[in-house]
Amino acid sequence: MTTQRGFSLLEAMIASLVIAVGLLGIARMQGVSLANTQSASQRSVAIARAYDLADRMRANQAAVRAGDYLRAPQDFGCRAVHYDHRHAAPAACTPAQLAQDDLADWAAALAAELPGAAWTLCIDGTPDDGDPGAPACDGAGTSYTVKIWWNDKPGNATGDANTSPVSRTRVATRFQP
After folding, report:
1. Backbone angles phi, psi at 117, to 5 degrees
2. What's the rounded Cα separation, in Å, for the pair 136 and 116?
3. Residue 116, φ and ψ in degrees, nearest 5
4. Of 4, 20, 22, 29, which has the fewest beta carbons less than 10 angstroms from its beta carbon?
5. Are 63 and 69 in contact (CB under 8 A)?
6. DSSP letters for the chain
7. What is the greatest pairwise CA distance in the chain?
8. Are 170 and 155 contacting, i.e. CB atoms less than 8 angstroms apart?
9. Number of helices and strands in the chain (H, E)
10. 42: how many CB neighbours lie within 10 A of its CB?
C-alpha cells in the first residue's frame, strides 16, 4: 500500500489562491464604491448649486425681467449688502449689478467645489443637450436652464494620449424664477 504525501499542502495552496482572488475582488468593489460615492457627491453639489442660482434669481425679479442674469458675471461687491458672509462696506447696487455679482459669486463657488467646472445659464427648451464648448441653448420657451459640466474623474483631466479621455458629467436644471 502506497501513501500519498503533499496532498494537504496542495489543498492549502489552492485555498490560499481562492482567498487571494476573493480579497482582490472585494478590494476592487471597494474602489468602485468609493468612486461612485465621489461621483454622487459631486452631482449633489451641482444640483444644490443650480437651485442656489434659481433662488438668487427669484430674489431679484427686476433683474430677471431685464435679462441681466443672461449677461457675463462681474463682481461689483454687492454681496456685502445682501449676504452676511462677507465683511465689507455696504455698496449701493442696482438689480442689474446684483445679478452680475450673484453670477460671479455663484461661479466662483462652483469652480471651488467641482473639478474643471463649466456652466451656462440660458433660456432653453431642450436642456438635456450641449457641451461646454457649444451649450445648445435654443432660446425657446420661458424656462431658464442652468447647465453645469465638470470632470467626473479628475485624475485624467488632461485627456492626453497616455490616459483615457476626460470624463465630463452634466447636470441640467430647468426652473421658473
Report:
1. -65, 140
2. 19
3. 65, 35
4. 4
5. yes
6. -----SHHHHHHHHHHHHHHHHHHHHHHHHHHHHHHHHHHHHHHHHHHHHHHHHHHHHT-HHHHHHTGGGSPP---STHHHH-TTS-S------HHHHHHHHHHHHHHHHHHHSTT-EEEEEE-S--S--BTTB------SS-EEEEEEEESSGGG-S--TTSPPP-EEEEEEEE--
7. 104
8. no
9. 4, 3
10. 21
Other C-beta atoms within 10 Å of 53: how many?
Answer: 24
- Type of residue numbered 123: I
148's grid cell: 453645469
- Reading the chain (177 residues) residue by residue, the pLDDT tens digits are 667 776 788 899 999 999 999 999 999 999 999 888 888 999 999 999 999 999 999 999 999 999 999 988 888 777 655 555 554 545 678 899 999 999 999 999 999 999 999 999 999 888 888 888 888 888 888 899 999 999 987 554 444 433 444 568 889 899 988
Tell me which residue of 123, 164, 168, 167 sits closest to 148, measured CA to CA.
168
